[in-house]
């Protein structure tokens, strides 16, 4: 029977230092349990049966920077993920956003782009797309390259379409893409005002004058200290009364910046910067 792979706290520490030194990737802000699972998965994938073997593998730089980042960070996403959030934005937040002549939205940790595209569809249906700029950032340039293309598996569209309808979409999702050889290519118009930039939330600079920031399902991989740092960055990037949306399983309630935020919807993790 095959022995179960395990790594100790010290070995995990070694991994963090090696990735920083050899690949220039700093995983020190990542929540340890999630990091341990991903490292074990990567060891298995590369047929390393001990941490010593894996260290040797890493030291010989048999992985590219991007591959290491891709394997360790989780990029799972979908269109209209947690549709209640999109429905709330459409029903309660768009009427505030439309008071601005130009709307700036930052998608932090946008992965392969399904989230900004979902929002673009709803913004278009409310006549707001043309005056909105969506800044889409991620630490991983491979997912950003996919986001720029806006091409997804056609078979995923069935689930996305059900989410779109539940979000209160006014058309049919198929109006927004062209199907070809098992792929769905999203309409170019949706991505016209999207800017894609590689950006690390842990040591990156703030953005200016954002009316809304969506950063969903990224905090679960960060330690509490790093989450506080990133929340500070978000508050500095928002206009007064700007919106911050975290993942439904995440929270700003225990953060050091809570007094600077108002809770708009506690269940959906929608916050608003105080004046
Ligand atoms: C699970 S995906 C979430 C995608 C999307 N926001 C959603 O909720 O569907 C997490 C994304 O966060 C990115 N990420 C992880 N750590 C990051 C960091 N320090 N700075 C920027 N992006 C990061 C990952 O590369 C990944 O694409």
From TrEMBL:
Name of the protein in its database record: Protein-glutamate O-methyltransferase CheR
Organism from which the protein derives: Flagellimonas algicola
Domain of life: Bacteria
Gene3D superfamilies for the chain: Vaccinia Virus protein VP39 (3.40.50.150)
SMART domains: MeTrc
Database matches in InterPro entries: Bact_Chemotaxis_MeTrfase, CheR_C, CheR_MeTrfase, CheR_N, SAM-dependent_MTases_sf
Record-annotated CheR-type methyltransferase domain positions: 1-274
């Amino acid at each position: 029977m095959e022995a179960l792979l395990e790594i100790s706290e010290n070995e995990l520490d070694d991994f963090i230092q090696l990735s920083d030194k050899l690949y220039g990737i700093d995983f020190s802000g990542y929540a340890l349990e999630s990091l341990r699972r991903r490292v074990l998965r990567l060891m298995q994938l590369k047929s390393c049966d001990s941490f010593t073997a894996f260290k040797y593998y890493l030291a010989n730089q048999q992985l590219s920077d991007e591959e290491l980042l891709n394997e360790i960070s989780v990029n799972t996403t979908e269109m209209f993920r947690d549709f209640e959030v999109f429905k709330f934005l459409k029903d309660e937040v768009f009427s505030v956003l439309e008071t601005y002549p130009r709307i700036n939205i930052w998608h932090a940790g946008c992965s392969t782009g399904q989230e900004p595209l979902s929002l673009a569809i709803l913004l278009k249906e409310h006549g707001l797309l043309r005056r909105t700029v969506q800044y889409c950032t991620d630490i991983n340039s491979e997912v950003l390259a996919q986001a720029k293309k806006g091409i997804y598996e056609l078979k995923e569209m069935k689930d996305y379409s059900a989410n779109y309808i539940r979000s209160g979409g006014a058309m049919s999702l198929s109006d927004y893409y062209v199907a070809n050889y098992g792929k769905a290519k999203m309409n170019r118009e949706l991505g016209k005002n999207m800017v894609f930039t590689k950006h690390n939330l842990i040591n990156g600079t703030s953005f200016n004058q954002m009316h809304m920031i969506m950063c969903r399902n990224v905090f679960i991989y960060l330690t509490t200290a790093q989450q506080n740092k990133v929340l500070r960055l978000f508050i500095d990037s928002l206009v007064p009364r700007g919106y911050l949306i975290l993942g439904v399983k995440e929270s700003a309630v225990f953060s050091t910046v809570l007094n600077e935020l108002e809770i708009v919807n506690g269940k959906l993790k929608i916050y608003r910067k105080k004046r």
